[in-house]
User: What shape does this take?
Amino acid sequence: MAGGSIVEGNVKDAYILTSRLIERLHRRFLDVVKAELDRLGVEDINNVQTLILFNIGGETLTVGELTLRGCYLGSNVSYNVRKLVENGYLMQERSTHDRRMTRVRLSEKGLRLIEKIDALYGRGAEELERRGIRREELERTNQLLVRLDRFWEGQLSQLSLLR
Assistant: This one.
């Protein structure tokens, strides 16, 4: 590697690959969700909207809370929430304390769909185990991903201070 040691280059190359894999894995998982929706014959919702529903689960959230909770690649959460309300997957209500704020929760239709998506997660977990990927390995991976998330959050803070 030009301008650095081999060790630095190896870490940099691994870091670049990790960031690319995270993006690819997210897109691939969205493809899996889309394939499941197709298999179920569900046509009035897309894969990103399905993950939004799954992230809401049994809770009542504001759009801001929902945005912080999930990773919705290239999507406008407010637009997707509006579509989910229109298609009967979400119920939306204005806050009694602040009329500008709305809260959303799943309708019966939304709850039925996330039960099916939860089954998809269950089948995936069983298949991982059959292929020799154990809970402990996933937990170590998750710990590393949390550390990367904190690192990137710190990078954002540092870069914003340099402005």
